[in-house]
Each structure stands twice: as structure tokens, then as C-alpha cells.
Give the backbone structure.
Amino acid sequence: MDGFTIAGARDRLTKGDLSARELTQTAIKAMEAARPLNAMITETADKALDMADAADARRKSGEAGLLNGIPLAIKDLFCTEGVLTTAASHILDGFHPPYESTVTANLWKAGAVMLGKANLDEFAMGSSNETSFYGPVKSPWRRRDDNAGLVPGGSSGGSAAAVASGFALGATGTDTGGSIRQPAGFTGIVGIKPTYGRCSRWGIVAFASSLDQAGPMTRTVRDAAIMLRAMAGFDAKDSTSVEAPVPDYEAALGQSLKGLRIGIPKEYRVDNMPAEIETLWQQGIAWLRDAGAEIVDITLPHTKYALPTYYIVAPAEASSNLARYDGVRFGLRVPGKDLTDTYERTRAEGFGAEVRRRIMVGTYVLSAGYYDAYYLKAQKVRTLILRDFEEAFGKVDAILTPTAPSTAFAVGAKTNDPVEMYLNDVFTVPVNLAGLPGMSVPAGLGSDGLPLGLQLIGKAFDESTLFRVGEAIERAANFTARPEKWWEAAR
């Protein structure tokens, strides 16, 4: 699958140079070769070939959709009818949904092909894809002159690895505090978190309902534009879905940046940030200035409160959402002496350590005597963070920041220090708290030979501007680095 993009494959399929079955067969072989990455929880090769045949039939009849015949990996947080859906948790053992999530239904309507369900941090809780019940995902990348296994980022680490390693042309992710953008930055791919409400959350296993948002992970900005157009849209089944037209995002590509104002927030310079992150940021500023954009210094004064606010709001919502997993209706059931004992045994065995930690934190901040002191105060600070962005967007059209404070780290390096792990989200969580769109674009390599990304933040429902600016960065960066396929020798 080397050299393939969604746009490129689409053109070849349209010309008849390639059939969807041939493309899917190639993808399946590459997926099987990449098993040492542990990127997939469930492979659906037979289903993929059936979907590819259906795509070929549609093309012959002149009914090809936007993604007709394109093989994708689906994060195992999206319910897929009749296909095992686990959220990477033991507590959902054996769960085969009788329904399809709206986002995946939209993708199938557009003609996409499902290669399988991608690994993730359990219930999307993590920044490294090490909390999965099915084991950690390994990044396709290795440090220069170092064979130590690296994390792909999280929680959408399986999706990121599937795209970066080359077997999936695109993948779905979800982003609650950076879970699309941070792994995209770590693995040298493009990832966009759309505006909250742009993509339906119906049929996606919930983590934090006011923060979760689905988005695409792809190899290029154009591919992300194509895929988001297919994923997005109003859904009456989701009360947070916004009834707004979905633009043709590809139409924004190639437009001049003249007249655009790009904000640079001083608060995104954090303590102990590596010099190479600042250097890349300055390079990104220079690229956009050379492309005709005006660079404007801005301030987002409440940014420093974003992480603690997020780690109150998100666990509180998780505590509420995960109460439905009780061993009675679906998934794992560990019998006890009575109903309460069954609940306790099922949850103790079914939930991993990080999920239990966040449930406990969330339950604590929602409890009597602490609700006002923690949760209510966090919601007030969240409003101030949104207000900062609103004021900034009165002056600028988009904001440029680093995606993550470092390159990818080694597997196991931060698992015993939750605070250090949470700091990986320092540049991404403000976007979720404000409900805004954010995109990571690969922009260079660090001194260790690993990818670094730049993040763009946009106005609500103005993803088109992010694609426009993101393509300018992509063009200037000319990021062509690819990981060496060490996993093929590891089989």
C-alpha cells in the first residue's frame, strides 16, 4: 500500500486501473504483515472483500460514492453491526452490536470498505495506547539508531499505526482531549478533530459526552478533507448533533492564504519544552508568512487551567457514562452472591487500572460536598477558556501551535506516572473544552528521527479554513519520511 492515498486510489479506481477487490486484497496482506504492531483488535478480511465486491458492482452501475472501494480501519469505539466491538475493554467481551454507528453508516453509504476494528486505550482513556485490554500498540516508527518500542500516542493509537504503517488508507478516530491529534503528531500523519456536533456521536461508546468527537486520520490533508465530508452530517438520533450543511472541504484546498490572519498564543510555550518544538513552531510561522498570511500575537490567558479543568470534567462524565456497565445486559458478567456483589465483581475484573482511576476521580468530584468545589468550578473555568478563544477569533482566522510537547516516547516510560502521562495533552485539551476544530499536520522530524506535528485551531464549524491552511503547511514541509518496516521481519 506504499504510495497510495485516498485521493490517488480514488482516481485509479475511477479510471479502472484498479478494482476495489484488488486494492482491498493488497490492504489485507499488508494488515496481516503488520500484526506485530498490534494495531487491530479484530480483522474482518472476509467482510472487507464482500464490501469491495459491492463497491466494484456499484461503480459498474454508475453509483459509486465518495469513498467507493477505499479500505479503512475503524477505531473499536464505533459500534459496527454484528462485528465485535470492545472499546479495548474486558468488560465488553463478546459484544456484537445489533446496530451501526451513524459515522460508520455514513462511511459505508459512501462506499468505504472496513478492514477491521483498531486497537485503542481502554474506553479511549489514555495518551499512549498502553491501557488496552488487548495489549499496547507499537508505533511503526523507531528512534534513530535505537530499536526500543515506541508508543503511537493515544487513545487512537491503533488507527494511527494502521495509517502510518501503510495498510489502511484512512482510519476513524475519536478525540476527547487530543486522541486524534496527538497520535497523528507522533506517527507523522494528518488528524482532524472537527467542531463538537459536526459528526454524530450516536453509536460511539461514550467516554466524556461533552468532549468526545469523531474525526478522520489520513496520510494527507486532502484525504482528511475527503473522509470528513463522508463522515459528517446532522443526525436526529444525537441531541448534540448540529444541523448545518457539510461543505465540500476539498474545494478549500489550493486557495491562497493572503488576507488570513494566523494567531500565535504565547501561553503555548510551556516549561521544559524541547528547543526543537519551538524551532518547528517558528518554522511553521515562517511558512505561513511566506504563503501570504499575516501573523498576529494573541493571548489565551486561561490556557494554564485547561489540563486540571479537563481532568475534572472528563472523569466526572466518564463516571456517569460507565455506570451502564454492570454485567447484567451485555458484555462481561462475573456472578456474585447478590446483585450488588455481581456489579462489584464484574467492574473490578472488567475495568483496567486507568479506567478505575478515572471513575474514582470522577465519582469523587461529583460527590456531595465536593461538587461545587471541583466540578462546578471546572465548568466555570471551561467557560473562561471558551471566552479566550472567542476573543482571539475576533482578531484572527486560525491559530497555530505545536501538537505535542515532545516526540513519541518509549513503551512503559510513563505508565507509572499518570501526571507525566496527562501532560502529553497540554496543547490539545483546550480545543475540546471549547468545542472547536483542531488539526495536526506532520511538519518535520525531531533530532531522534521521529515525527513532529503542528496544530491548527479554527473557529467553530470552519474546518474549511483549517484544511486551507493545513495544506499550505503540508506543501511547505514536504514531509515524505516513512517508517522502516521493521515489523515485517518481526513476524
In short: The chain has a mean pLDDT of 96. The radius of gyration is 21 Å. DSSP finds 16 helices and eleven strands in the chain. The longest helix spans residues 371-392.
